[in-house]
Structure formats: structure tokens, C-alpha cells
């Protein structure tokens, strides 16, 4: 199983909203800039997140998106499911037709792995993840406006 860019970006964007939960709506442009995610990609993700009831959009000045539930009520698994990723480690998407229309020898292994991964992600809420020390260090860095430099790229100061 591989979590796609879509899943990673959706979780990242939702964490950004959780960081700002008490402060009101956040624009997709702000999330794009802070997290380094394309604005058009975020628009696609947020259409799905909104459709599945995890975010709500507010129009007009001061508008943007906010979580539709508290950060304690939204798990990483909910986000992955909302964008249509699913958490399945089998090659047959759980249909048990992995080998010539029949269940393969290792189906049970991959099925159990997928369930363990789901349980793990279901047990992590946005709030609980933001309580981690290393995550807080990233939040502080992002809020200070100091972004890491990448080797080979020149740093321009305006």
C-alpha cells in the first residue's frame, strides 16, 4: 500500500486548518503558501473534504475554510477516506479475486495489514497529532515565516 500525494496533502491541509481552528477561516492561498501545495490541487481536495462534511467554506471578506468539527473529532483515517483514498493493502481492493478470480495465498496477510493501518490512522486525531513535540516545532517554524532552504537553491533576500 502506498499513500498518494493526494492523501498526504489532504492530511497536511487539514492539520493547517486545525492549527488555526480557534482563529477563524483560512484561505486556500494561505495553506498553499505555508504548506507548499499547489492552489489548484487544494481546490480539488477541498471540494471532496467539503462534500464529505469535514470542512465548511465561508464566502466574502475574511472567508476561507474551517473544520466542520473540532480537531479532536477528526481522525487521519476520516480524511483519507473522504478524499477517496481508502486504506487497503490488498492487490484486489478487498474483493478476494487477486489470483485468477480467486483469493490469493497472501490475501489474509495484506487484508490484516490494511486493517491495522486503518486502526492506527483512526486512532490519530488532528488534535492529538498537533500535541507532538516535533510537530509543534514545525508549526512554530512555519508561523515564524522561516522556511528551510534546500541544497542547490540560492536564497534571495528581498
What is the number of domains? 2
Largest beta-sheet details: 2 strands, antiparallel
Q: Name the helix and strand elements from N-terminus to C-terminus, one letter apiece.
A: HHHEEHHHH
CATH class term of the largest domain? Mainly Alpha
Backbone structural class: mainly alpha
Task: Determine the CATH superfamily of the largest domain.
Answer: Winged helix-like DNA-binding domain superfamily/Winged helix DNA-binding domain
* Radius of gyration computed on alpha carbons: 18 Å
Number of helices: 7
Task: Indicate the proportion of strand residues.
Answer: 5-15%
Mean pLDDT: 87
Notes on the protein architecture:
This protein is mainly alpha-helical and 158 residues long. It folds into two domains: 1-86 and 125-158, Orthogonal Bundle (Arc Repressor Mutant, subunit A); 87-124, no CATH class. It is built from seven helices and two strands; from the N terminus they run αααββαααα. It has helices at residues 5-19, 28-35, 39-51, 76-82, 107-122, 126-130, 133-144, and strands at residues 55-58, 64-67. A two-stranded antiparallel sheet has the order 1-2. Helix 1 crosses helix 3 (39-51). The protein starts with a helix and ends in a 14-residue tail after the last helix. The relative contact order is 0.14. Mean pLDDT is 87; it is low at 149-158.
Amino acid at each position: 500500500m502506498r499513500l498518494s500525494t493526494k492523501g498526504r496533502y489532504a492530511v497536511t491541509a487539514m492539520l493547517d486548518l486545525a492549527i488555526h481552528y480557534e482563529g477563524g477561516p483560512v484561505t486556500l492561498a494561505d495553506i498553499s503558501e505555508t504548506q507548499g501545495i499547489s492552489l489548484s490541487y487544494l481546490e480539488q481536495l477541498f471540494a471532496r473534504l467539503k462534500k464529505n462534511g469535514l470542512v465548511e467554506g465561508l464566502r466574502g471578506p475574511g472567508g476561507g475554510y474551517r473544520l466542520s468539527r473540532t480537531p479532536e473529532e477528526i481522525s487521519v483515517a476520516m480524511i483519507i477516506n473522504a478524499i477517496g483514498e481508502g486504506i487497503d493493502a490488498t492487490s484486489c481492493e478487498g474483493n478476494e479475486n487477486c489470483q485468477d478470480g480467486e483469493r490469493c495465498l497472501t490475501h489474509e496477510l495484506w487484508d490484516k495489514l490494511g486493517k491495522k493501518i486503518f486502526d492506527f490512522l483512526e486512532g490519530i486525531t488532528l488534535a492529538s497529532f498537533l500535541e507532538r513535540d516535533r510537530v509543534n516545532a514545525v508549526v512554530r517554524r512555519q508561523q515564524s515565516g522561516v522556511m528551510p532552504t534546500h541544497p542547490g537553491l540560492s536564497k534571495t533576500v528581498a
